[in-house]
Amino acid sequence: MLCPQCGREGQPVDRTTVQALLKPEALGMVNGCQYVFCETPHCPVVYSAADGTQLRKAQVRVRVGLKETEDPVPICYCFGVTERMIREEIQRTGGSSASPRIRAEIKAGNCRCEVENPSGRCCLGEVRQAEKQAAAERTSGDQAVARS
User: Fold this and answer.
1) What domains sit in the chain, N to C, each tagged with a CATH number?
2) Mean pLDDT in residue range 52-77
């Protein structure tokens, strides 16, 4: 199913996720249709359904990380990790404790991505990507300082 706003194919998401993350005033828009999550960063639609229902950022009670450009940009909804937290820890210590901590929490059964993460999927991939990006930024910054 394509997002009616941007035309990009959406990723299926369980209705439980949609209902858990909508503001109370938007809950009446949820029906029996299958929903998809729009991963296009600049698109204001977060969820859409085959019947034409569109649920936008303003109707969701959490910040949708991949659609945000200003801090805080959440990447782990279950354990409150943001891009900035990872960047700052890597700048300060050279490494990140986020993904090992999240893996431990998952193993302990404390993950609730299906109701906390707007995509309805585990955030660990996004956390690892943010760690790699922050490490690359630190390395390129260190190299720039060394050249000066």
Assistant:
1) 11-59 (2.20.25.270), 68-147 (1.10.10.1100)
2) 95
Is residue 50 within 8 Å of residue 1, measured between CB atoms? yes
Residue 29 pLDDT greater than 70, yes or no: yes
Q: Where are the alpha helices (DSSP H) in the chain?
A: 15-21, 83-93, 98-107, 113-116, 124-147
Structural Rg of the chain based on CA atoms: 17
In angstroms, the first-to-last Cα distance of the chain is 51
Per DSSP, the three-state class of 82 is strand
CB contact at 8 A, 36 and 4: no
Report helix, strand or coil for 2.
strand
SS3 131: helix
Separation in Å, CA 107 to CA 104, 110, 114: 5, 8, 16
- For 66-102, the pLDDT digits (tens) are 999 999 999 999 999 999 999 999 999 999 999 999 9
Tell me whether residue 120 is exposed, middle or buried, using C-beta atoms within 10 angstroms of its C-beta: 0 to 12, 13 to 18, 19 or more.
buried
What 3-state DSSP class applies to 37?
strand
